[in-house]
């Protein structure tokens, strides 16, 4: 999501950086370009107007700071206003003082409700909660079974019975109370379009369980339709927020940017893929930075903290510092990074990554080949790749089912990487990102890749 918009913005901002003083004409030109970029990204007209007006007002006068260049000022203003448009603060979920906290998910057919129920359950588990899933979609015979499969995958129990949605939902909450679950997530039936029957059913379910949170699940790929759907649902079902799914597809981002302004409720979570872990809290500020090509370091650090094995990370940093980073360490790091999700997703979050590199993409098959090659090396070779001579190369290639060319490439790239790490001081970088995080959360630094030095 947001690729095209992000490319556009990068172009606009790069040109801007080359400028000195910005006159009214220049500001007007930049605003025009931003407008085109937003409309292309399928952002609703109303939102574009509103956003541009706020940027214009702030760029043409009062708050210009002396410490920033004109271009930096414009970028700062755009970043802040974009953040506001995306909802400002990240969604904060407050638990019911008397558990269970009841969460209801609604939405059109195929939007990703059932998948999101399971993902949300996993998210709650990571917050230390004990959810129960309730299958109140009795429309499709397979719907409850689908939920049970997903529930098993994330290790969360599912309650359902073949009665009617309202009674299932009510009894589901009672069951949670009985067995001491502190969160209940109710999955409901979808329809092809908004019709009275659908609204009526979901309204009755809501009335029966009085959810603390009602989230609408919408498919980001449907663009402005998603926003219209959200508005219609909000009129009958007092929403608390939106769960935007399939943002891993080629959605242009218009929905994410329009929901808050048009519906008045923020995007609370985004679903970024089909796997249970592809789900996260929506952070407007990070998203804005990502759109502006500033990367998304915080999300990356958070994911790294979740996925990284502390001991492995510690060892790697030690060895990096000592200039003893070997292919063995590299292999371990590769496996850690793979745990963070598809490499392509990780790549798009890196700040300042040249567009060509991002577009070239990562060939996951290539990663598997690299692993195979390292597995075929002896410990001594992994420790000191310089000893890998011609006959060793041939042996490694044969052992890994690759060619000597592949082995050569890896060894060359590894050597370049070692050089790069020495010159950029990777260890120092890790320490810095940890410092940022510390400040933000006010917690003592956690031990892990993101905060080690
Ligand atoms: N790529 C991608 N696919 C997703 C995402 N979320 C859901 N899907 C897929 O979308 C399809 C529909 O998801 P469901 O969770 O069954 O949708 P639903 O809203 O429960 O559908 P109904 O119960 O029929 O109304 C499934 O194939 C999911 O795997 C996502 O974030 N990214
Ligand atoms: Mg479903």
In short:
The chain is α/β, with parallel strands linked by helices. It is 58% helix and 9% strand.
Describe the structure.
The protein has 453 residues and is of the alpha/beta class. The chain has helices spanning 3-17, 24-40, 45-59, 70-85, 113-126, 143-154, 165-179, 196-209, 224-237, 254-263, 284-291, 297-307, 310-321, 327-339, 343-348, 355-360, 364-375, 379-383, 390-400, 404-424, 426-441, and strands at residues 101-107, 131-135, 158-159, 183-187, 213-219, 241-245, 267-271, 279-281. A hairpin with a 7-residue loop joins strand 7 and strand 8 (279-281). The longest helix is centred in the C-terminal third of the chain and has 21 residues, at 404-424. Residues 427-453 have low confidence and may be disordered. Magnesium ion is lined by residues 113-114, 137, 143, 187.
List keywords for this structure.
453 residues, alpha/beta, Four Helix Bundle (Hemerythrin (Met), subunit A), Rossmann fold, 3 domains, eight-stranded mixed sheet, 21 helices, 8 strands, 58% helix, flat, disordered C terminus, binds guanosine-5'-triphosphate
């Amino acid at each position: 999501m947001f690729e095209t918009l992000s490319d556009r913005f990068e172009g606009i901002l790069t040109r801007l950086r080359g400028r000195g003083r910005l006159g009214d004409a220049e500001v007007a030109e930049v605003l025009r370009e931003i407008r085109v970029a937003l409309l292309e990204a399928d952002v609703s007209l109303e939102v574009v107007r509103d956003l541009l007006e706020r940027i214009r007002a702030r760029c043409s006068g009062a708050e210009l700071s002396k410490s920033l260049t004109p271009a930096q000022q414009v970028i700062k203003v755009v970043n802040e206003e974009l953040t506001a448009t995306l909802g400002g603060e990240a969604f904060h979920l407050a638990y019911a003082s008397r558990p269970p906290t009841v969460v209801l998910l609604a939405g059109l057919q195929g939007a990703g409700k059932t998948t999101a129920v399971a993902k949300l359950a996993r998210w709650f588990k990571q917050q230390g909660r004990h959810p129960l899933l309730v299958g109140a979609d009795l429309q499709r015979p397979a719907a409850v079974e689908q939920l049970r499969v997903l529930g098993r995958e994330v290790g969360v129990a599912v309650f359902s019975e073949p009665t009617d949605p309202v009674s299932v939902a009510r009894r589901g909450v009672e069951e949670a109370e009985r067995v001491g679950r502190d969160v209940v997530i109710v999955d409901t039936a979808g329809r092809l379009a908004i019709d009275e029957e659908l609204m009526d059913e979901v309204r009755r379910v809501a009335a029966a369980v009085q959810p603390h949170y009602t989230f609408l699940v919408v498919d980001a790929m449907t663009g402005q339709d998603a926003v219209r759907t959200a508005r219609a649902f909000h009129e009958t079902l007092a929403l608390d927020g939106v769960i935007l799914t399939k943002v891993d597809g080629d959605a242009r981002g218009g929905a994410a940017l329009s929901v808050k302004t048009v519906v008045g409720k923020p995007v609370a979570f985004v679903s970024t893929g089909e796997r249970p872990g592809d789900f996260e809290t929506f952070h407007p500020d990070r998203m804005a930075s990502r759109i502006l090509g500033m990367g998304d370091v915080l999300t990356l650090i958070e994911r790294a903290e979740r996925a990284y094995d502390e001991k492995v990370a510690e060892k790697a940093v030690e060895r990096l510092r000592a200039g003893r980073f070997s292919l063995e360490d590299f292999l371990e790091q590769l496996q850690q990074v793979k745990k963070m999700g598809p490499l392509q997703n990780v790549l798009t979050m890196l700040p300042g990554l040249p567009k060509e590199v991002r577009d070239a993409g990562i060939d996951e098959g290539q990663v598997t080949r690299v692993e195979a090659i390292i597995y075929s090396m002896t410990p001594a070779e992994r420790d000191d790749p310089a000893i890998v001579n011609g006959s060793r190369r041939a042996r490694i290639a044969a052992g890994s089912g690759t060619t000597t060319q592949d082995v050569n490439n890896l060894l060359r790239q590894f050597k370049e990487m070692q050089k790069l790490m020495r010159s950029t001081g990777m260890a120092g970088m890790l320490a810095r990102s940890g410092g940022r995080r510390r400040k933000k959360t006010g917690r003592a630094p956690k031990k892990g890749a993101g905060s080690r030095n």
